[in-house]
Amino acid sequence: MFTIGCHLSSAKGYLHMAEDAVSIGSNTCQFFLRNPRGGRAKAIDPKDIAAFRQFAPEHGIETILAHASYTVNPASNVPKTHDCALMVLGDDLVRMEETPHQLYNMHPGAAVGQPVDVAIDNIAAVLNEVLQPGQTTTVLLETMSGSGSEIGGTFEELATLIEKIELNDRMGVCLDTCHVWAAGYDIAGDLDGVVDEFDRVIGLDRLRAVHLNDSKFGLGSHKDRHARIGEGTIGFDALAAFTNHPKLRHLPYFLETPNEALSGYAEEIAALRAAHAEG
Question: Which residues of 183-198 are buried (b: 16+ CB within 10 A; e: fewer)?
């Protein structure tokens, strides 16, 4: 089964979000638990969760991916920013247990003037405080483009961070195709090589989800600008090949492409499903 979906709004509840997913031919979705720029999260409606948990398996939705707010920066040494990261990540992981055994994705953070090793230690300290032994949620660190001082632009940085997490059986990676391309990993010209490098440095068992995005800029640009599938520098054929790679076919794929309407996602999903079936 090819698991593919896109980022959807959860503003009208989990059930409505799942209905939107099904309406565009997808069997998964990504969403924010709270405003992506920060702020309080809306109270969870138990009736909505119950309705979602009944609807989802009836329509082939087994996996969903929540995304942390962009403003969360656990790498920071600024007390206010540090405390915010602790609060948001801790609260989000409690919320995730309303939909057990799912995925939660986060940007590792930015060093902002600190040495990389210190920033990585800061992230690990936050995660070691918010991760709980009884949680069923897997936290995913997203691969980044290597822009500025952000952490996660190399597989080595993510591997080092994961090694510092005490409950690292709760940790995984979400690979963003646009980001790794921008970071210099040639997934169009040497996909096997990139897959082998990921396996050697991090381990493919850690790879739990993929953000499937084309890129407006070239290989190694360190610019994080998503393009619609087939309209960027990676190209449709390379991204379809990615989803068909024998070591990657089983993963859930999430589009974060710049579409203004659900119909745009529906078109991309249909084209990728057709290419996946042919592969």
Answer: bebebbeebeebbeeb
Q: Which residues contact 192 (CB under 8 A, 6 or more apart)?
A: 245
Under 8 Å between Cβ of 5 and 21: yes
**Which neighbouring-strand residues pair with 241?**
none
Which tokens in the block code for residue 252?
């859930």
Strands 4-7 and 138-142: unpaired
Average pLDDT, whole number, for the chain? 96
Sign of CA dihedral 72, 77, 83, 87: positive
Distance from C-alpha of 28 to C-alpha of 2, rounded to nearest angstrom: 10
- Residue 68 DSSP label: -
Residue 75, φ and ψ in degrees, nearest 5? -75, -15
| Helix (H/G/I), strand (E/B), else coil: 187 | coil
CA distances (Å), origin 236, targets 227, 241, 271: 11, 8, 9
103-106 and 63-67 beta bridge pairing: parallel
Query: How distant, in Å, are the alpha carbons of 1, 150, 184, 218, 222 from that of 147?
Result: 35, 6, 11, 14, 5
Any idea which residue has 């007390």 for tokens? 79
Q: What is the pLDDT of residues 157-187, one digit of tens each?
A: 999 999 999 999 999 999 999 999 999 999 9
Q: What are phi and psi of 249, to 5 degrees?
A: -60, -30
Enumerate residues 6+ apart whose C-beta is below 8 A from 58: none
125-165 pLDDT, tens per residue? 999 999 999 999 999 999 999 999 999 999 999 999 999 99
Q: Between the CA atoms of 101, 85, 209 and 227, what dihedral angle is there, to the nearest 10 degrees?
A: 140
- Per-residue pLDDT tens digits for 55-95: 999 999 999 999 999 999 999 999 999 999 999 999 999 99
